Amino acid sequence: MTDESARSTSRVVVVDDHTTFAELLSDALDRQEDLENAGTASGVREGIELCRAKQPDVVVMDYHLPDGNGLDAAREILADRPATRIIMLTGNAAADILAQAAGSGICGFLPKDGSLTTLLDTLRHARSGSMVIHPSLLALVGKPQAPEAPDAPALTTRERQVLTLMAQGHDVRANAKHLGITENTCRGYVKSILAKLDAHTQLEAVAVAGRLGLLATSNHD
């Protein structure tokens, strides 16, 4: 019973130089049955060393840190332990930062002023190889651009519909329900979109689609 409980608990490290935020989040983690506070750090180097020592399942990382940025720390942590799930927080996201995040291997990008419930749910469901990004941040990456680039890949009407929903920050389940298709079918469209846009994640696909002007016409098919 104890072993089963231990296996179902995700150990979380918090890397943030705002002491009050770090303490509040750590306290919240201590109250969760399926999440465990594995320690806090206030900078890039301290966070990397803490992750090497504690080997957490999930890391909550502020983007802006005193001795660097969270993406640099995330790359080094993932180089040491690729299965680590990293959720990045930021108070003032920029499109270029989110574009860099697309290929970094992190699992999520959330606004720092978002709800605690959303953050805890993201920690619970973070998976390596996937990426969750809050709609308010995704909108920065997926701003429509016109006209459509002449070298943009051809997408079917349904692929454009799925792409538009992706750019709005919806997950596969919500997209499938909205379009009246199965989740497996929706995942198939997502895979096709990623292949056509030469993207590895949904965030990267939205960023590429925005640059190519594909989002400008997605709602009109």
UniProtKB/TrEMBL annotation:
Claim: Cytoplasm is one of the keywords in the record: no
Q: Which residues form a coiled coil?
A: none
- Which Pfam family name is an example for this entry? GerE
Could you provide one GO biological process annotation from this protein's UniProt record? phosphorelay signal transduction system
- What keywords is this UniProt entry annotated with? DNA-binding, Phosphoprotein
Output the Gene Ontology terms for molecular function.
DNA binding
What InterPro entries does this protein map onto?
CheY-like_superfamily, NreC/VraR/RcsB-like_REC, Sig_transdc_resp-reg_C-effctor, Sig_transdc_resp-reg_receiver, Tscrpt_reg_LuxR_C, WalR-like, WH-like_DNA-bd_sf
What are the Response regulatory domain coordinates in residue numbering?
Answer: 11-127
UniProt-listed SMART domains: HTH_LUXR, REC
Q: Which residues carry this modification: 4-aspartylphosphate?
A: D62
What SUPFAM superfamilies does this protein's entry cite?
C-terminal effector domain of the bipartite response regulators, CheY-like
Asked if the keyword Transmembrane belongs to this entry, the reply reads no
Q: Ranges for the HTH luxR-type domain?
A: 148-213
PROSITE patterns registered for this protein in UniProt: HTH_LUXR_2, RESPONSE_REGULATORY
Gene3D superfamilies (alphabetical): 3.40.50.2300, Winged helix-like DNA-binding domain superfamily/Winged helix DNA-binding domain (1.10.10.10)
Q: What is this protein's record name?
A: Putative two-component system response regulator
Q: Write down the species.
A: Arthrobacter crystallopoietes BAB-32
